[in-house]
C-alpha cells in the first residue's frame, strides 16, 4: 500500500526492515533532504502467532518465518508499488533494526588518567576503543546464556570522547589529565543476521546493508528531536519485550530488558477471561482499560489486576538496573504502538514510582513527538493504515543521513 505521495525524484530510496520481538516489518521509504521526515511508499508487517512459546527457539522460528514471508512480499508487491510510484527499479540501501530479545545494546566506558597532563592523541583513543571492544568480546565469550543464543556484534559506535569531563573532538593539540571513551555495541542473534544476509544476497544483491539494535536509532532520533535533556530514560515496548535505555549526560550508557510486552500481557488476560488474545489486546488500546472488566467476576478482576501489578513490579526491577548507583532519570520517553502507548504510560508511571518513590515526567514518543512535523492528512493516513511506530522511528533514522557515518558495521 502507498501511504504518502512522492513529489521529487532526487531522493534516497531504501528498504527498512524492523524485526520486533513478535513481528517483522518491511517497508520502502524515500528520503528527501529538504523535508523534515521521509515518505513511506509501501509497508507490510507480519505478526507471529499470539501463543505462549515453549522456548526462545520456538519464538525465533516464528520470527524467522515472518521475516521470510514479509521479504517475499517486499520482493513482489513492494517492488511493484515502488516502480509505479517512482519509476525506479533499484533499491540501493537496506536498513535493518532488531529489537530485544533478538538484539542487545552493550555500552562500555574506558578511562585513562595521569597525574601529569598528557596528549590526547588519536593513537591513545584508538587504544582505549580497542580495550572497550575487547571487553565486549570477553563478556560474550564468558556469558553462558549469550553463548547459547549465538549472539555476535553487528555494529558499534563511539558515543563520546571526553577530556577532563568535557566532550572533545580528537586532535593532537588536546592535553588532559583524564580521558574517557564511551562505546556502544549492538549484538544480535547470528542465525537471524545470517538469514537476513542470505535473503539480501538473493533479492537485492547490489544493495548496501546496515544493521542496528533498535535502541540505537531510537536514541539518535530522540536526540535529533531536541526535546530531551541530558538525563532521561528511553522505554521501548514491543509485543513480547520491554527494553529500557538509560541516558546520562546526554549519552546512552546502559540498556536492559524484560521479556514481557503487549502481546504477553494480552495472552495472560485472555487466559483469565477465556477470550481470544486479539480481543484482550483490543482492551489495551481503549482509553479506559478498566471499564471492560465490569462484566467479569470479582475473582477475574483480581486476577487481571495481579497481571498488571506483576508487570509493574517487573518494570520497577528494570528501572533499578541503571548501570550505576543513581536512580532512573525523572524524564521517561515511552515508545510503543500508537494506541497502546496511553495504557503503558500509566504502567510505567506506577512502576517508576515503585522503583524511586519519586514522581516522573512521561512522554508518549509517537503521539507527542515523532509526528509533530506530519501534516493532518498524513496523521490521518497513519491512523487509518495503522502505520506502526517502530517504522516511524526507523524511517526517521534512515532520513538522518548524517548520523550513519558514526557507525562501524561488522
Structure description:
The structure is a single chain. This protein has helices at residues 56-86, 122-142, 144-149, 190-203, 215-225, 262-273, 277-284, 298-320, 341-356, 365-368, 376-385, 389-399, and strands at 12-19, 23-31, 39-47, 93-98, 103-119, 151-163, 166-167, 175-189, 208-213, 232-237, 242-248, 251-258, 331-335, 361-364, 407-409. It has 410 residues and is an alpha/beta fold. The strands form 3 sheets. A 5-stranded mixed beta sheet has the order 3-2-1-4-9. Strands 5, 6, 7, 8 and 15 form a 5-stranded antiparallel beta sheet that branches. β1 and β2 (23-31) form a beta hairpin. α5 crosses α12 (389-399).
Alpha plus pi helix count: 12
- Helical fraction equals 40-55%
Structural class: alpha/beta
Low-pLDDT ranges:
1-7
Q: What general form does the structure show?
A: globular
**Largest sheet descriptor:** 5 strands, mixed
Q: In which order are the strands of the major sheet placed? A: 3-2-1-4-9
Strand content: 25-35%
Radius of gyration: 22 Å
List keywords for this structure.
about 400 residues, alpha/beta, 5-stranded mixed β-sheet, 5-stranded antiparallel β-sheet, 12 helices, 15 strands, about 30% strand, disordered N terminus
